Amino acid sequence: MRLALAAALCALLAANAAHAQQTPEQMKAEAQAKLDAFPYKNTPEASMFRGQIVFLNYCMLCHGPNADGQGRSARLYNPKPANLRASMMNDQYKEMIVRRGGKGMGRSEFMPPWNEELTDEQVGDVVNYLRSIAPADAPK
Description:
0% strand
């Protein structure tokens, strides 16, 4: 235990020493690289990232982690949840079904309406995420 603690302390000190030897320009470049790697709030990439989080929290149980309709609870439903990776529905339709639910769109009564649960931004983000995994020739 003491050996592991000593090794961890040495590694931490070595990392701090290496960081302390950086010039201000190197430190600034490192900080900028970290910022560049993070998607800014108002970019399509950030929206898709947030949409994936919404999907994983609200949709994954039925539609599956791969959005292929093979979620853990999919076997309980007839009709089965949609394979969203193969969906040829446009963005407007996807937004409406997320808001109204399946029954509100004349589809499966098991898909709940999320209009009261999700914000407008979350609905838009999940639609952007679904667009990012849709077939290349799917309508927008």
